[in-house]
Amino acid sequence: MPFMRRPMFHDVQLHQAKPVSSSLHIVSIVGARPQFVKLAPISRAFAASGSIRHTILHTGQHYDDNMSTVFFDELKIPKADVNLEIGSASHASQTGRMMEKLEQWFESHRPDVVLVYGDTNSTLAACLAATKIHIAVAHVEAGLRSFNRKMPEEINRVATDHCSDRLYVPTPTGMVNLHAENLAQRAIHSGDVMRDAVQHNIELALSRRTKTQKHNDNEYGLLTLHRPSNTDSDVLFSLLKVLDTQAQKTMPLIFPAHPRTRTILEKSSFSLSSAIEIVEPLAYLDMLVAVKNAGIVLTDSGGLQKEAAFLGTPCITLREETEWTETIDIGVNQLVGTDSGKLVAAVEKVASGNTGFDEQTELALDSHFGGGDAAQKITDDLLRIFR
Ligand code: UD1
Questions:
Q1: Is 139 marked active-site?
Q2: What is the pLDDT of residue 3?
Q3: For position 239, what pLDDT does the model report?
């Protein structure tokens, strides 16, 4: 039998096997905390369409309740239909185990489209497993690049974009990146589903949580650190030392520690002053309130850089590069890497009242990240292309 190539976006006219009235079976693959946030607006838009049969498959990459279950509960995402319970392992083992189980599931259910999100090992595993057995793949949050090939997430992004049929791109910069890799033909600028999620949930979050706030608004900072480049070496301790000194001088920091970071700190003899308070990972609604009311956000997370921008809080990014360059260009995020001089100068800039936000910021954010309708655009496009 000749090799049958699955239709790609550019030969979509071949993809007309289904009558237009039948529902499209899409399986969303999620596994890690930021993916649950991206899934929420998509799942809502799919349900509202009335034309999509949506299956949610959780790889089990993140398994602690406060890294997983609480997101489904708070964001009102239907319980996952399948959980592969893969858990933690080295990159190759984790990705390989996922691929094996995903392939079995894809083979027995033959969904019309596999929808993958972001840049985790779950994203890559699902994309590779589906594409090799000729099931269409669409990628939400495509086109992002840090241009740092030492980040596992960067490898996941590049490989996933090249193997996907349809690419949903949150920002114009992402479109430029895909153009440079000859992938623009399969891509659309959908806007950012994380902006949808913030806009949908912020009022609820503020109404439920204001009483639990321990510090006055703008009188504390919020810190997160989980990237291996920051946590898996002495960089972690030197960063925390500088941050501790700054926290004592300016404002206390709340530090919801990722399990990776907490384990490393617990195994070390490093100690912090009371100006940095380590707490458990925050649930999504608590996190939105904590970001909105903070005077500053210090982070190496991708999602948090944007949530800070969307919620009007200045951000300092503790990485050498960012995929969200728009937040830097707009002026509400400062990229300092691990350079203590730059970090101190950035904190002082914010402490002096220079936050980078003005009356133009909201418009600029809308033009780059969309106005909160990314999930609807993605839903419409999936139905147009694949049904
Ligand atoms: C993953 C993603 C990253 C994303 C991040 C969000 C990859 C390569 N990285 O990194 O893109 O920004 O999720 O959090 O996929 N652990 C627990 N409980 C959990 C989950 C993890 O204890 O529920 C611990 C395990 O010891 C594990 C470590 O955290 O070894 C790291 O987990 P892992 O699945 O490798 O990915 P993240 O570092 O969370």
A1: no
A2: 38
A3: 96
Note the pTM of the prediction, 2 decimals: 0.93
Output the CA 207–ligand 1 centroid distance in Å.
30
pLDDT tens digits, one per residue of 330-345: 999 999 999 999 999 9
Taking 50 as the pLDDT cut, the residues of the chain under it are 1-7, 9-17
Atom of ligand 1 nearest to the CA of 302: 12
pLDDT at residue 212, as a whole number: 61
CB atoms within 10 A of CB 216: 9
- The residue nearest atom 3 of ligand 1, judged by CA position, is 120
Strand locations in 170-302 (E): 187-189, 221-224, 253-256, 276-279, 296-299
CA of 227 to the centre of ligand 1 (A): 9
**Closest ligand 1 atom, CA of 66?**
23
* Three-state DSSP state, 334: strand
- Catalytic choice (62, 139, 226, 258): 226
